[in-house]
């Protein structure tokens, strides 16, 4: 506005529509001004009804002004554009007007008509965005200025020649659709830049309802995309979200008497009260929920725009379509998009994770988590239609959860930043609350603390993302990731959030199917997630009582390393002010002192015993010992490999449950390269190793026999036939099948995906792990053929693997290899470090 307009706006009673009476010396408003004031102050209508009424009132007034001023002038039309064109006139909205002419009337006549309309608007203290153009000029300006073109997409006739307005609309829409290939990317870039400037509406304590990401500007952009006929937004909940944001903005205008779109802290209580909302926190939650709906719809829409535009330009690969499932490949359909498998029941299509043709959500309660984990690990979005179908058709998860469900949750969290858009897709369809009912209390909950940059729920997800980068520092990455997801879950309850969180975590962890010892550890981590940082920054580290305060709580080095990693992840996810080099040094120093104070030898022995008891598959290996002995005798007698496959189902009483996998027991006379060879064959058959144990037996003095017990599951599709698997193992051991070459060929032909960024592998020598062997601990991202590569690396160093414990925890492999040198004893320290470095290089 000009200075004159701003002065008028500040002095006019219509600009401050509150209950405060006007000055005794100010004239009472009349005509349009009086009607507008009555509508804003006394009319019972609110929300969309009031916006429509205000627009219609303004339409009648402006139409009257035009009719009086035009005085028979032809070839001219008054057009509402922008928000006014959409009929969304808020109390302090600008009135966007275009005086359109056909070039026939003289410049003087059109200018005089414009003045006779603009000045009454200004005199009433109303902000005005105006222009005078002929049809050709309007199109040229729109072609040069994207913002002008967006405003003209909402052109609505008010007065004058309707054919001019019709011509404008049809021409502008035709121009918009014909130039969609260049204009939509420009619009998308504009949205991104605006989001960078104004932030995410759903996480800001003082959000801009219009400009921030997920705000009213994004709704306008979505309408523009729909008008291009290139794509349309998912409409579920979108209208309600837009109405909520507009209602809050209207109330903000009335409460402040200013044309502001920023919901400041000092205004939130009054706006909440005017809207009949209990308090400002609930108001913010409602705003955040609406913003998330808009932001998610925007993400989905722009992804579809990109796909369509790439398809039009020929950059999107189109090929034969295959449906993968337990039945294998279906018949090809000409011209459809390539579908490549990601997991059982999940495939990639057009850059999204979708359900396979044979997937049945009603018969597979784990499918939502499996699809989400596969999408996140592949760095792909979960298709909205897939998330919607999973929400509608999936059965409730059994309680306690099956092992696979828990592993898939951990795999999803372990994907790092790739997990965030997938988690948002699950939340958009209500799947997170269905899987974790306690989540609803923290969803969209604001944190009125300047240090925190996220709402409670997003902070929990961000902490898991940060924790995923620290999984190599802990022996139980699954516990770290779940603790990160739950550490502030108590903020949805009254009282100390750490104490409330401990109670909730015990219940949630038990429902997830964790054993009691893991439930206790998770509860301890949540209860004490602030212990290290508060102690390190408030206590004297040289005082023995300070270290004792830590060791008395954690009790073991394993829990201590988990708490240290959780502390760092929590602080990094909070915001820049929550973690610094100074704090990191203090916490690291305190952690080191606590670790030294713990009795290392006693703890190492206890840890090894706990590991043997708690390793996934360890119980199954013990139960299979009789089978191992039988096979070992047969292998010694026949001097060849013998194999047994035994299927297992975790929910045998459930007719809809699928077997989690099989126990594969292999026995053969000891020979070189057994571990990498067998692991490679399993990888070729797309069998994922969930756990494994290798033991050396000596049946009745017949010579050493290796017994390998594996818990395996198919990555997707059916399990291989036992006879074929046995034959391939024999061929590989005899040299007739080059496993390494076959794996390399398959990897080279696999689709290239961005995937999640996993922390680098870590191979260490365990101190005091065993008196008779050197224990190498390998922590790495699980991947097809990983165990084969580890085995080859160990073989290349000349060491002998005497025993191994293989464990897959979500997307992380945590393995221990007991190796010996040529003399059958432990390796010297320097030699052990060389072997560890060699294995680490092979995995990098």
Protein model, in words:
This protein is of the alpha+beta class and 844 residues long. It is built from 34 helices and 17 strands. The strands form 4 sheets. Strands 10-11-13-12-16-17-15-14 form an 8-stranded antiparallel β-sheet. Strand 14 and strand 15 form a beta hairpin. Helix 9 packs antiparallel against helix 13 (280-313) and helix 19 (456-468) packs across helix 25. The longest helix has 34 residues, at 280-313. The radius of gyration is 34 Å and the shape is elongated. The two termini are 61 Å apart. The model is unreliable at 1-24, 318-335, 601-624 and 649-660 (pLDDT under 50).
Helix run count: 34
Radius of gyration: 34 Å
- Please report the total strand number as a whole number: 17
Structural class: alpha+beta
Q: Helix content range of the residues, please? A: 40-55%
**Net shape:** elongated
- Which sequence of strands runs across the widest sheet? 10-11-13-12-16-17-15-14
Quaternary state reads single chain
């Amino acid at each position: 506005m000009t200075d004159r307009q701003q002065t008028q706006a500040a002095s006019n009673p219509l600009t401050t529509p509150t209950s405060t009476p006007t000055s005794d010396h100010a004239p009472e408003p009349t005509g349009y001004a009086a009607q507008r004031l009555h509508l804003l102050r006394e009319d019972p209508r609110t929300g969309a009804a009031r916006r429509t009424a205000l627009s219609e009132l303004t339409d009648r007034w402006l139409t009257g002004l035009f009719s009086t001023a035009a005085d028979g002038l032809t070839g001219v039309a008054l057009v509402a554009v922008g928000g006014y064109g959409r009929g969304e006139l808020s109390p302090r909205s600008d009135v966007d007007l275009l005086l359109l002419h056909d070039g026939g009337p003289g410049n003087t006549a059109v200018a005089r008509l414009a003045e006779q309309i603009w000045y009454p608007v200004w005199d009433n203290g109303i902000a005005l965005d105006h222009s005078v153009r002929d049809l050709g000029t309007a199109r040229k300006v729109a072609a040069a200025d994207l913002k002008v073109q967006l405003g003209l997409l909402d052109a609505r006739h008010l007065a004058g020649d309707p054919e001019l307005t019709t011509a404008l609309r049809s021409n502008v829409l035709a121009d918009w659709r014909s130039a969609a290939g260049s204009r939509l990317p420009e619009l998308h870039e504009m949205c991104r830049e605006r989001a960078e400037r104004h932030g995410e509406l759903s996480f800001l304590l003082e959000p801009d309802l219009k400009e921030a990401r997920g705000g009213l500007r994004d709704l306008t952009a979505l309408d523009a995309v729909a008008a291009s006929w290139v794509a349309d937004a998912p409409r579920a909940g979108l209208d309600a979200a837009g109405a909520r944001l507009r209602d809050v903005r209207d109330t903000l205008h009335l409460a402040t008497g200013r044309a502001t779109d920023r919901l400041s802290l000092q205004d939130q209580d009054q706006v909440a009260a005017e809207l009949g909302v209990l308090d400002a926190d609930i108001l913010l939650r409602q705003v955040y929920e609406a913003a998330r709906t808009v932001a998610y719809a925007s993400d989905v829409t722009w992804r579809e725009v990109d796909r369509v535009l790439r398809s039009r330009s020929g950059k999107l690969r189109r090929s034969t379509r295959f449906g993968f499932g337990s039945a294998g490949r279906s018949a090809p359909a000409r011209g459809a998009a390539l579908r490549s498998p990601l997991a059982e029941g999940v495939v990639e299509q057009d850059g999204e994770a979708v359900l396979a043709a044979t997937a049945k959500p009603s018969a597979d309660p784990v499918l939502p988590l499996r699809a989400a984990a596969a999408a996140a690990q592949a760095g792909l979005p979960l298709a909205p239609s897939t998330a919607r179908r999973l929400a509608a058709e999936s059965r409730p998860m059994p309680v306690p959860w099956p092992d696979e469900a828990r592993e898939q949750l951990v795999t999803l969290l372990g994907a790092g930043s790739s997990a965030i858009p997938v988690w948002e897709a699950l939340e958009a369809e209500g799947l997170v609350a269905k899987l974790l009912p306690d989540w609803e209390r923290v969803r969209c909950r604001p944190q009125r603390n300047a240090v925190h940059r996220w709402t409670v729920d997003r902070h929990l997800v961000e902490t898991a993302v940060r924790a995923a980068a620290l999984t190599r520092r802990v022996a139980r990455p699954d516990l770290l990731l779940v603790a990160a997801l739950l550490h502030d879950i108590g903020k949805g309850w009254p009282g100390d959030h750490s104490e409330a969180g401990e109670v909730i975590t015990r219940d949630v962890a038990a429902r997830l199917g964790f054993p009691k010892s893991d439930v206790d550890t998770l509860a301890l981590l949540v209860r004490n997630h602030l212990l290290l940082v508060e102690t390190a920054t408030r206590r004297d580290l040289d005082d023995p009582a300070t270290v004792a305060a830590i060791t008395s709580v954690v009790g073991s080095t394993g829990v201590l390393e988990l708490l240290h990693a959780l502390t760092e992840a929590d602080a990094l996810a909070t915001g820049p002010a929550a973690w610094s080099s100074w704090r990191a040094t203090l916490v690291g120093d305190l952690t080191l002192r606590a670790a030294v104070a713990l009795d290392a030898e006693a703890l190492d022995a206890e840890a090894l015993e706990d590991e043997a008891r708690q390793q996934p598959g360890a119980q199954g290996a013990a139960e299979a010992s009789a089978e191992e002995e039988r096979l070992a005798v047969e292998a010694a007698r026949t001097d060849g490999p013998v194999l047994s496959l035994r299927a297992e189902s975790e929910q045998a009483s459930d007719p809809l449950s699928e077997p989690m996998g099989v126990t594969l027991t292999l026995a053969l006379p000891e020979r070189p390269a057994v571990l990498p060879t067998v692991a490679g064959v399993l990888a070729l058959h797309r069998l994922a190793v969930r756990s494994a144990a290798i033991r050396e037996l000596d049946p009745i003095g017949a010579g050493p026999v290796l017994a390998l017990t594996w818990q395996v599951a198919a990555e997707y599709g059916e399990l291989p036939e036992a006879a074929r698997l046995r034959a391939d193992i024999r061929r590989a051991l005899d040299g007739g099948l080059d496993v390494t070459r076959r794996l390399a060929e398959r990897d080279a032909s696999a689709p290239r995906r961005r995937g999640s960024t996993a922390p680098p592998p870590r191979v260490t020598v365990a101190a005091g792990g065993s008196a008779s062997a050197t224990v190498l601990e390998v922590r790495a991202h699980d991947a097809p053929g990983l165990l084969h590569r580890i085995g080859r690396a160990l073989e290349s160093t000349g060491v002998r693997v005497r025993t191994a414990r293989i464990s897959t925890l979500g997307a992380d492999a945590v393995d221990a290899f007991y190796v010996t040198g040529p003399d059958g004893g432990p390796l010297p320290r320097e030699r052990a470090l060389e072997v560890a470095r060699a294995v680490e290089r092979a995995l990098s």
